[in-house]
Amino acid sequence: MREEKIIIANWKMKLGLKETLDLAKEVKAKFKDFKGGEIAVCPNFISLLEAKKILGSAIKVGAQNVFWEGNGAYTGEISPSLLAEAGCEYVIIGHSERRKFLMVNYEMIHRTIKAVLKVDNLIPIVCIGENWDERKTDRRDFVLFDQLQQALGGVDIGPDQQIIIAYEPIWAIGSGTAIEPSEAEYAHKIVRLTLNDMFGMSVVNKNFKIIYGGSINSKNVKKFVGLENLDGMLVGGASLDADEFYKLAKAII
Known about the structure:
This protein has helices at residues 17-30, 48-55, 80-85, 96-101, 106-117, 132-136, 140-152, 181-199, 201-207, 242-252, and strands spanning 6-10, 38-42, 60-63, 90-93, 123-128, 163-167, 208-213, 232-235. The protein is of the alpha/beta class and 253 residues long. The protein has a single domain (8-14, 63-241), classed as TIM Barrel, CATH 3.20.20.70. α3 (80-85) links the parallel β3 (60-63) and β4 (90-93). α1 crosses α10 (242-252), α5 crosses α7 and α8 crosses α9 (201-207).
């Protein structure tokens, strides 16, 4: 699974419906002849269906959140099967902004991952990462280990199922400054070693990707090219401009 890199755009709550669809058209045109890797975009919920129609099959569509139940009296939530029905192939789970503002914890993330894995062709993008205090006190390794254990401990992964782990140091998100590539490489190595202990190296190599997210752009991304444990990027602000997003993707892929 690791050979093909993936670049995922997270458009967050930055765009209205028309802006989202206009950007989707620009991205489709820009990436028309793009080869060598996977490109996915995660628009807001109300734009998913129309964005999917615009982007077709060449550029994948993902959602920014999902609930852990398949159906029921859960006002305001959306299920994994509904996302799959809308054409989503990816879904972000436990983004740091949801952990910060909406009190999403890793017990909830764990339940959500299990629910997503029950739906065919829907791949969870599981977010982990330390905050500034945890980094300052040299607790990053433990934090990443603990988050992975809480999120994925006891999860059964079928031979054809895939999981993406997005390492996003909370202190770097929205700061305009990505972490040093060597620091990202070290964190990704910790993630891979932890996953190896949990699932075995062969499962990790076949079923997992590890990507980086946090203030990445077309200028600083070049420093990340060639890192051993980097399978792609989760891109925020830089993905809101089709030209910038294309340059970033070309640099990595």
